Amino acid sequence: MKIIVDGFGGDNAPLAVLEGCRMAADEYGVEIILTGDEKKLRACAEEHRISLAGMELVHTPSVIPVDAHPQDIMTEYADSSMAEAMRLLSAGKGDAVVCAGSTGAMVVSASLMVRRIKGVKRATLAPIIPSESGCYILMDAGANVECRPEMLLQFGVMGSAYMEKIMGIKQPRVAVVNIGAEETKGRELELGAHALFRQSGILNFTGNIEPRYIPRGDADVVITDGFTGNVVLKLTEGLGKMIGNALKDIFMDGFAGKIAGLLVLKKVKAFKKKMDYTEYGGAPLLGISKPVIKAHGSSNGNAFKNAIRQARDFAERDVIGQITDSLAKIKEQNTQTKAE
Amino acid sequence: MKIIVDGFGGDNAPLAVLEGCRMAADEYGVEIILTGDEKKLRACAEEHRISLAGMELVHTPSVIPVDAHPQDIMTEYADSSMAEAMRLLSAGKGDAVVCAGSTGAMVVSASLMVRRIKGVKRATLAPIIPSESGCYILMDAGANVECRPEMLLQFGVMGSAYMEKIMGIKQPRVAVVNIGAEETKGRELELGAHALFRQSGILNFTGNIEPRYIPRGDADVVITDGFTGNVVLKLTEGLGKMIGNALKDIFMDGFAGKIAGLLVLKKVKAFKKKMDYTEYGGAPLLGISKPVIKAHGSSNGNAFKNAIRQARDFAERDVIGQITDSLAKIKEQNTQTKAE
Asked: Which of B145, B177, B260 sits opposite A260 (nearest CB)?
């Protein structure tokens, strides 16, 4: 198993990337191909005494900035560490890509260089978000602002395969975000998607999910358009931050607070860990014909290690094969329905 | 000042309503008109030794169930306590309505019986939600699933007037929910609304707000369509519940946890109170030509008291006058622009 890692993606590159690659190589026995400025990578490794054993370095002269226009990855930044990682994946030099760079540029370069799964209308970033009872995958989380019902069905197929194969959830519960539980609620998008999910019959579709029950974990695969999904993702992050500040205020201020903090330290830490989405690694880019994992921009070494583990599982467990099969089944159903 | 209160709205009616009315009459010196089954109201008051001094009872035989179709308020439940409250308001028998019943039925009965402000396209429920730095008003929170840019501008005008007059915020910051801060982000709705807000120039429009910064309190008036707004409202509630459960788990379980809980009890209580939106009273129904307050369905006596105070302020401080003036200004601008 060979994982291609963009050495210069994320806020803490290249040190955090090197640390993560080292840990992953040691713990999981995976081989690593690292893209980026070779001199800088070697200097950083030497300075921090990180062995490069088991890692192949592929030199690239540039790095795409996070605020660059995503399309620039194909022109101005065609020689960047991210573009090279995708090129290597496309050429079969490795089994999966891990990158903490710009999401937009990843979607563009993966779609154009690695290509989408046949029949997939749009590739999308699908973050795994912690819930009270575990975690759920959110699709679309922002890549496609406007969506059609058929796209939502494809998201359901892809998210379901991922949660089953990677997170080990049998028959993942797939639900569409809506403002009411009833089938008649929502916009044309939700009404249309509802009908398509019911028709297809190949997923464990549980109907609508009201946003109130998303954090409780009432669905494993949470389906919506990219605008609403981005609102869900960002609001969850914002409220998490707000709560974190409140806890800090409760436990860090004053003598009694600090004593109380010590008394419940373990539980607070466990809660924080449970809510820390870097524990799950990164977010898969679903719809691409080979495994691509987007690591969080602020990833530390441990988060990169987890993302590499996730990329290995993604490649090993043939998620893409299952997605391809399911899409073929849906296509067959549609052809039959039309023929009837 | 005379406040009309639906005696049978909400989960805890009529007892909580009677308690709230009693407290409000005593503390604020307001007169109360209470609608509902007179016998039941008197029996409940007697049983709980609640004096009805300063309260006028208006008998109505029925109550509209929360799950009834909203339109039924005009036919099957035309003799309900809610319908009568709106009728009394429309007839000028009181200055404002407080009701904890079905939101849908309130929007319908208020729109048809009390009528909308001239020029207002849609009335909407606008809840006040606590943030890290205070609170914000959310519009639309679910009444209008699909919205046009002009509706969003009207929401901004109405929410701004309310936050200024009732919450005492000078030049409230008005922002449109969007998936990015840049003007070019979003759907046609956001792009269109952005242009209209910039043009109008009568509000303190601060541009887009990313959902991440809503809980931090970066805007006082948070504008979006009813689908997205409902997602924001319900997800905030759901995450609040999740955090509440986590805090309970930390402090209620085990000896150390309980001791810790005692040590920080005051702070946890202060935090809970800050996050408790019933403290703000209820949500105004904005766009109606007279003040209507929707109290939370689970309101207790204290929440009803707060809602009555809010209704009094709503009537006293001429929010509706300011909304009417602002809408007239916008109309004038539009006429001028067309004439040029």
From this structure: B260
Six-digit token string for A64 = 């795409």
Task: Tell which residue, A76, A145, A152, A157, has the closest CA to residue A109.
Answer: A76
Q: What is the DSSP letter of A278?
A: G
Give the span between the Cα atoms of B74 and B64, in whole angstroms.
10
What confidence tier does B268 reach under pLDDT thresholds 50, 70, 90? confident
Flag whether pLDDT at B293 surpasses 70: yes
Transcribe B271-322 into DSSP letters: HHHHT-GGGG--EEEETBSS-EEE--TT--HHHHHHHHHHHHHHHHTTHHHH
The whole-number pLDDT of residue A331 equals 86
Phi and psi at residue A240, to the nearest 5°: -60, -45
Residue B274 banded pLDDT, cuts 50, 70, 90: confident
Distances, alpha carbon A104 to alpha carbons A71, A99, A124, B36, in Å: 8, 12, 10, 58
Alpha carbons within 13 angstroms on the beta-carbon side of residue B167 total: 27
Distance, CA of A95 to CA of A28 (rounded, Å): 15
pLDDT exceeds cutoff 90 at A262: no
d(CA A110, CA A91): 12
Pair A86, A291: CB distance under 8 Å = no
Contact B268, B261 (CB under 8 A): yes
**B contacts of A177 (beta carbons < 8 Å):** 231
B330 Cβ contact list (under 8 Å, min separation 6): B153, B157, B200, B202
Give yes or no for a contact between B140 and B156, defined as CB atoms under 8 angstroms apart.
no
Q: How many CA atoms lie within 13 A of A246 on its CB side?
A: 24
Residues on chain B touching A265 (C-beta within 8 angstroms)? none
Contact B289, B115 (CB under 8 A): yes
**In this model, does residue B251 exceed pLDDT 80?**
no
Tell whether the model's pLDDT for residue B277 goes beyond 70: no
**Averaged pLDDT, A140-166:** 94
Q: Which has the closest alpha carbon to B41: B66, B58, B24?
A: B58
Question: Which residue among B227, B237, B245 sits closest to A179, beta carbon to beta carbon?
Answer: B227
Alpha-carbon distances of B59 from B81, B94, B296, B339, rounded to whole Å: 8, 16, 23, 54
Residue B279 has pLDDT above 80, yes or no: no
Task: Tell me the mean pLDDT in the region B1-29.
Answer: 97
User: Which one of A179, A216, A250 has the shortest CB-CB distance to B264?
Assistant: A250
Beta bridge partners of A32: A3, A55
For residue A180, the distance in angstroms to the closest alpha carbon of chain B comes to 10
Q: For the residues A161-182, what does the mean pLDDT come to?
A: 94
How far is A83 from chain B, CA to nearest CA, in Å? 25
ipTM of the complex: 0.88
Task: For residue B83, name the pLDDT band (cuts at 50, 70, 90).
Answer: very high
Chain B interface mutation, best of A176, A179, A224, highest count of B Cβ atoms under 10 Å: A179
Reduce the DSSP state of residue A62 to 3 states and report it: strand
What percentage of chain A exceeds 90 in pLDDT? Answer: 75
What residues have CB less than 8 Å from B241, skipping those under 6 apart?
Answer: A212, A215, A216
Q: Which residues, other chains included, contact A321 with Cβ-Cβ below 8 Å and sequence gap of 6+?
A: none
CB B307 within 8 A of CB B6: no
Rounded-to-integer distance, Cα A27 and Cα A4, Å: 17
- Rounded distance between C-alpha atoms, residue B30 and residue B24, angstroms: 7
pLDDT grade for B314, boundaries at 50, 70 and 90: very high
State the pLDDT at residue B242. Answer: 84
Instruction: Give the pLDDT confidence of A272-293 residue by residue, as tens digits.
Output: 777 776 667 789 999 999 999 9
